[in-house]
Amino acid sequence: MYNLVLLAARPPDWTHERFIDWWRGEHAELTRRLPGLRSWRHTDLDAALEPRSEGWDGLSVLGFDTPEDLRKALDSPEWAAAVAQVGDMRGRRIAVMGGEREMHAG
């Protein structure tokens, strides 16, 4: 699996709950349409382990079969629509990509 991992923080004038509702609702409707999307996991972050990790609201992991499949999704009209919907809402994000390896299955 090749993943796009997004760590996101809400706009300064939104509550955590409003952001999660939007991200899992209205925004998810566009994200689900990405071509080649094989899996999608979303975590509602409610606590930080330590002070330097504070200030984030959600973690999203979008899985694709290959880096090329992810690149096609990022070049798609569906991705453009999702980006346009975010617009200038002034939240923060970290977006990284990489290959996944299962390290433990319980």
TrEMBL record:
InterPro entries assigned: Dimeric_a/b-barrel, EthD_dom
Residues in EthD domain copies: 12-84
Protein name stated in the entry: EthD family reductase
Originating species: Streptomyces mirabilis
